[in-house]
Every structure is written in structure tokens, then in C-alpha cells.
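User: Design a sequence. Structure:
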């Protein structure tokens, strides 16, 4: 493939790597049985490496001071330079797998080759695992999730040459909330003649008012000091909790008149409240950033991939004192975001930042990143089991990178009737992340009891 310019939106993330926060998207997929790695690599070659040329390209920089970088074919590309094999020590449990991935999570990807690597891990329980590290400059996490899902089939003997990712089903997460808001906002912002008709003057005034409010939030808000905020160090940790039944969360949502997304976000807010209190602080609300998809999920990904997403700032109501209060306030805040044009405004801002040069890019990205403790993703994955090279996928997790001084990333993934939460933490600041896992599960249980009680009252 001929060399091509790196888009401004991708250049931002290419330039944002720093030792204490790498721009690497971490992903983990586990399997029920030992993987046939030759077959897996064949699927990887045809579905990813042959389809998306950037996986065979490396970034090159212009010799001119302000010249844009390019993607160029790596003349030394070899799959073996990007794929590692490993065996977990006994007993091959989650702790052993976490120890393995945490050996690499703080290590930069080499810049002299394509910006990705995969670890093929044997000895995880009775099966295997694939740990992927993909640089944010290749694409946003939403697109890369689709790339990884394109490795999978709906049946063990599915068409291994099939290329399209599976249907995600109903999008009930923060990701989909943002998608809905972005599509609605896009229609309002781009359809200028419709906005200028008499029947839509009120909408125009409302949009102007919202734009002013969002600008004030992004510029004037400050990150509160809590036990999960601070100056990051180099060492990071990935960890995750055992999955919980999705049916329990659905039942809670029905019993309380909320959504699955509301329940999961409220549980995160509650976990952060408990963690703050345990570590000697009065619980305060915790701001986090949420990525918003701006692609049409009904269309295939373009071969060049790239970043097409925005971010919205969501404040988790951890300062409220009860699970019910946090759930009610979560619902109110999420409903407010659904009617906001914030995603499109921040997308336009990111496009502008990507044209300013490395120094100003870092200044602006750090300025806005430091409004939040980190990034939270809530991804509704396939409802039915998926198979890669004939092997059933038992779990999937993915962590967005942190930027600026962010210290806490959260991923929530719904897959095959179960919900799983994982954290990516700065080991210097968030010193007891295992507590967050337990606190999240406890908060889900508390909300479930609340849902059962309210459901009985309704009868």
C-alpha cells in the first residue's frame, strides 16, 4: 500500500505517549480450551493483517519542522515480530494471568515497526488467552473492538474466512448512549436550513445555551482531590473481577425503573464512594471521560481504520450517601447527557487540536484530560457465545488508555449473558485496586436488593 498521511485525529494519539501514560489500548480475550495457535494465526492473518494495511505499517516523521507524519509500509514486517508465545505458571488462574499482563502494560510499543503486539498465552485454566496491545494511533477503541470481534464466528465451525464483525445487539451502554447523542446532535448541527425555520428557532436557542454550558464545564471544571486522583507514575496494573449474571442487573433495572446502564454506572459510583471512605476521605463525585462512537455501526470499517470518536465528561455521583440516591442521580445525569451536543463539540475540538503541532497538542490534551480521573467504557458485546478458530470465547475485556495525569480506567463489558468489570490503575496512586473490584460487586448486590424490594412493593 502506498504511503499516506496520518490524519490529524490519529496524530494526536501518536504524539501523546509519555512514560507515565502510554497511548495503548489493552485487550484480553480468554478461551474455554487450549487454542490451536496455527489456526488462530491463519485467521488473524486473513481477517486483520490482510484487511487493515495499518497493521503492516509504521509511522514515519517528516524532515520538515511542521510536516505531518505518514504511515509507511514496514519493509521488515514479519508477524513473528509482533506475536509472543507464553505459558502461565500453575495454577494458571486470574492472578497468574494478571501477573503476566502487568509485566508488559507499562512498556511502550517500539516505534520502528507496526504499533501492535499480541501475546498468545497457554495454561489459563483449562484453556488459553490472547492479550493484545494496540496503539491508539491505529484507531479508536470502538473500532479496534470491532476488529478483534471480526476474528470470531457465531458457531465453532463457522466460516473462518468471514470478515464482518458480529452484530452487537442492543446497545445499552455508555457507548451507545453517546452514539445516540452524536447522531441526534449531528442532525441538529449540520441541518442548517431546518434549524432556521420558525418551528425550530427554540431548538436553536436551546443549542446555543447548551453549547455555552458545555464550554463552561470543559474549561472551568476542576478535578477534585480524592484517593483515586494524583500524579501518576510509570507502573500500571490491569485487574478484573469474576463475571456476574446479566439477568441480575436486568432485574435490578426493571425493579427500579432504570436501565442496565444506569445500574452499572451507579455501581461504579458506589464502589468509588466506598473506596474513598475506606481510605480516610469524605466521598466526593468522581469525573470520568466516556468515549463516544461517531461511526455508522451498520457499515463496515474502512481499511485505513483511524480515530472517529469523541469524549464526554461524566461526573459519577459518588458524593451521595446511599445506593438509591446514587442510582436516581445517575439516571438523571445520563438522561441529561442524551440531550446534549457535547460529543460533537468535543469531536470538533479534537480535530482542531490535531492540527496545532505536538507541543500545543500535548498542552490542550493534558488540559482537558486533567478534568477527569480517567476513562470509563461500558461495551455491550455479543449476546450469544462467539468462537475464534473453533474455540469458545469465555470472556473479553478492553481498557482505553489514560492521558494527562489520569490514574483510573474502568471497563465494563457485557457478553454472553454476563457482565464483567476491570480496572486499569496507576499503581502509585490507586494502591489497593482489589478493593474497587469487591466494592463494585457489593454495590451491584445492594442495588439488586433494592430492585427486589421495590419490585415487591409494586405488586
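Assistant: Done.
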Amino acid at each position: 500500500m502506498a504511503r499516506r498521511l496520518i490524519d490529524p485525529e490519529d496524530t494526536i494519539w501518536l504524539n501523546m505517549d509519555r512514560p507515565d501514560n502510554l497511548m495503548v489500548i489493552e485487550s484480553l480475550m480468554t478461551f474455554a480450551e487450549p487454542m490451536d495457535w496455527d489456526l488462530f494465526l491463519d485467521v488473524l492473518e486473513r481477517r486483520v493483517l490482510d484487511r487493515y494495511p495499518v497493521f503492516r505499517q509504521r509511522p514515519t516523521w517528516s524532515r520538515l519542522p511542521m510536516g505531518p507524519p505518514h504511515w509507511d509500509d514496514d519493509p521488515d514486517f514479519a508477524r513473528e515480530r509482533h506475536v509472543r508465545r507464553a505459558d502461565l505458571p500453575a495454577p494458571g488462574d486470574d492472578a497468574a494471568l494478571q501477573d503476566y499482563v502487568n509485566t508488559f502494560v507499562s512498556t511502550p510499543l517500539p516505534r520502528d515497526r507496526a504499533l501492535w503486539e499480541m501475546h498468545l498465552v497457554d495454561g489459563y485454566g483449562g484453556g488459553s488467552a490472547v492479550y493484545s496491545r494496540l496503539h491508539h494511533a491505529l484507531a479508536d477503541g470502538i473500532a479496534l473492538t470491532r476488529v478483534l470481534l471480526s476474528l470470531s464466528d457465531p458457531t465453532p465451525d463457522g466460516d473462518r474466512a468471514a470478515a464482518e464483525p458480529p452484530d452487537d445487539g442492543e446497545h445499552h451502554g455508555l457507548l451507545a448512549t453517546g452514539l445516540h447523542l452524536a447522531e441526534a446532535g449531528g442532525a441538529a448541527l449540520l441541518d442548517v436550513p431546518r434549524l432556521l425555520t420558525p418551528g425550530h428557532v427554540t431548538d436553536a436557542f436551546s443549542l446555543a445555551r447548551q453549547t455555552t454550558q458545555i464550554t463552561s464545564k470543559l474549561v472551568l471544571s476542576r478535578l477534585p482531590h480524592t484517593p483515586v486522583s494524583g500524579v501518576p507514575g510509570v507502573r500500571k496494573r490491569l485487574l478484573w473481577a469474576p463475571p456476574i449474571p446479566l439477568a441480575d442487573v436486568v432485574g435490578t433495572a426493571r425493579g427500579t425503573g432504570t436501565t442496565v446502564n444506569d445500574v452499572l454506572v451507579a455501581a461504579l459510583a458506589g464502589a468509588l464512594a466506598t473506596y474513598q471512605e475506606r481510605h480516610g476521605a469524605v466521598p466526593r463525585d468522581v469525573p470520568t471521560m466516556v468515549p463516544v462512537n461517531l461511526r455508522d455501526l451498520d457499515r463496515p470499517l474502512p481499511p485505513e481504520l483511524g480515530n472517529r470518536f469523541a469524549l464526554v465528561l461524566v461526573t459519577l455521583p459518588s458524593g451521595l450517601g446511599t445506593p438509591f440516591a446514587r442510582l436516581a442521580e445517575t439516571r438523571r445525569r445520563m438522561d441529561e447527557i442524551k440531550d446534549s451536543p457535547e460529543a460533537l463539540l468535543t469531536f470538533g475540538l479534537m480535530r482542531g487540536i490535531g492540527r496545532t503541532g505536538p507541543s500545543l497538542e500535548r498542552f490542550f490534551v493534558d488540559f482537558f484530560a486533567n478534568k477527569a480521573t480517567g476513562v470509563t467504557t461500558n461495551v455491550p458485546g455479543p449476546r450469544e457465545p462467539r468462537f475464534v478458530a473453533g474455540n469458545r470465547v469465555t470472556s473479553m475485556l478492553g481498557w482505553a488508555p489514560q492521558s494527562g495525569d489520569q490514574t483510573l480506567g474502568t471497563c465494563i463489558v457485557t457478553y454472553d449473558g454476563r457482565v464483567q468489570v476491570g480496572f486499569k490503575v496507576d499503581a502509585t496512586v490507586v494502591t489497593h485496586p482489589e478493593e474497587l473490584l469487591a466494592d463494585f460487586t457489593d454495590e451491584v448486590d445492594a442495588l439488586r436488593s433494592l430492585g427486589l424490594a421495590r419490585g415487591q412493593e409494586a405488586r
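Residues 160-202, 204-209 have pLDDT under 50 and may be disordered. DSSP finds 13 helices and 17 strands in the chain.
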